[in-house]
Amino acid sequence: MWQDFYAQHQGQGFELLAVAIDFQGAGRARPYVEAAGATFANAVDTENQLGLLMGFTAIPNLILVDEVGIIRYARFGRFDIRKEEDWRMVERFLIEPGAGELERSAAIADAFQTAEALEQFHRGMAHYREGRVAEALAAWRQVAVLEPRNWVVRKQVWAIEHPERFYEGAVDYDWQKEQVDQNR
Amino acid sequence: MDRREQELVGVGDPLPDVSLLGMDGGAVRLRDWQGRKLVMYLWGSW
d(Cα A87, Cα A72) in Å, to the nearest integer? Predict the structure, then answer.
């Protein structure tokens, strides 16, 4: 887990920042952060700023940034620190004096391909910030219709509408698969 | 190539100066980490 990685490599001249992409705020992320016993920095991207800037449609993602602030690697989806090859890749990044030889980034950035999807996303966020949840969900559902594989938006709608499938015990991925099969 | 491709931030670009929400309600600015290597892990409870 990330806390194991951080404990082992802390002091090797890097920082670890875990960012939860969650429109609902820090409350949804907090139980996980606490359960992990994280001593590294944690934050929440409540407005999908990173998703808008970098164009990802899924998580979990890894972004590696060098000492002068240049992004040297990005992988969108399928990053798992528990997998030895993923752990070793981050280690190599830390050890190399520069950013080192990193594998080719796998970063398909295809979020908000159309002006309409982007507009509906922002419309939904404006509604949501004002407490108009039903209107927000309606706008975000339009994004999901236009971009069914924009999981960042589609799954946020599911989580807000069906919290019992996300926050009562483990996330119900069978239910999610059913939603996909039923085009919901 | 769609317009988004040109606008997106990716490998080779500077990390944008984004302000995120800290767990305690304060702001967490990505530029705070400039000067050290930064490993960012983006995740979701969904």
Answer: 17
